[in-house]
Structure formats: structure tokens, C-alpha cells
Specification:
The protein is an all-alpha fold. Helices cover about 70% and strands about 0% of the residues.
Length: about 130
């Protein structure tokens, strides 16, 4: 159960700041769907504006990483952080960007392997090899 009110479309229409962000989300994503993350953030219009602007810059802008790769990274980080909502949201986004079942399975294998080896290295407190230092 949410700890904040999830804004309806009617409530969003009544607040110019929220309406502007929701309209931009719809235009950027070419979809009428506004998910619960944005509806919850609407309670704080300044946070909504800032978060959408940052996310749009990182995830929607053209860059060195293709859109699917960005979503795969987002899934991995969300898994490491234990964010079920983000795992579901970005898995759906990755599928919409062409992620196959085989890619998803391989991603999960990489996430699992990284979690295992990270835990082992952390437990052993191994020093970083000089060759790996940037």
C-alpha cells in the first residue's frame, strides 16, 4: 500500500506544474500511461519536475548507450537495491525496447554471478590489483 496519495488525471490537470510534467511524460514516451511512480511524486511538484528532468536526460536522451542497454543496467541496479517496483517497471520497458527472453535470462545470470562474487570479495576484503586501478 502506498504511503502517499496517487494522483488521478483530474487532480494532475488541476495543478499546472504536475500537468506539465505528465504531459511531457506522455509526449516523450508516446503513451497515455502515467505510472504510479510519477503519480506518487505529484504530491511534491518540485521533486516531480526535478526527477522527470533528470530521468529524461539520462534515459531518454541519445547517448553512447542504446536504450535497451540503459534499461538492462537499470534492472541490475534495481535488483541490487531491492526495488521491486523498479525491477518490474524497467523489465517492462526493456521488453518494449526489444529485450528477448534469452537476454533476460542472461541478464539474470550476470546479476546473480555479480552478487555472488561481490559477496565473496567483500567477505575476503581483497585488495584491488594494481593493474585494475584507474
Amino acid at each position: 500500500m502506498a504511503t502517499v496519495t496517487l494522483w488521478s488525471d483530474a487532480e494532475a490537470e488541476a495543478d499546472p506544474r504536475v500537468k506539465a510534467v505528465f504531459d511531457d511524460i506522455r509526449a516523450t514516451r508516446r503513451s497515455e500511461f502515467i505510472n504510479n511512480f510519477w503519480r506518487g511524486l505529484a504530491n511534491q511538484p518540485a521533486v516531480l519536475e526535478r526527477t522527470w528532468a533528470s530521468l529524461k536526460q539520462v534515459m531518454a536522451a541519445d547517448g553512447a548507450l542504446d536504450p535497451l542497454t540503459k534499461e538492462l543496467i537499470y534492472i541490475a541496479v534495481s535488483t541490487a537495491n531491492g526495488c521491486s517496483y523498479c525491477i518490474h517497471s524497467h523489465t517492462a520497458a526493456a521488453r518494449a525496447k526489444g529485450m528477448t527472453d534469452a537476454q533476460h535470462g542472461e541478464l539474470l545470470a550476470v546479476i546473480g554471478m555479480a552478487a555472488e562474487t561481490n559477496a565473496l570479495v567483500t567477505a575476503m576484503q581483497l585488495p584491488v590489483d594494481r593493474e585494475f586501478e584507474a
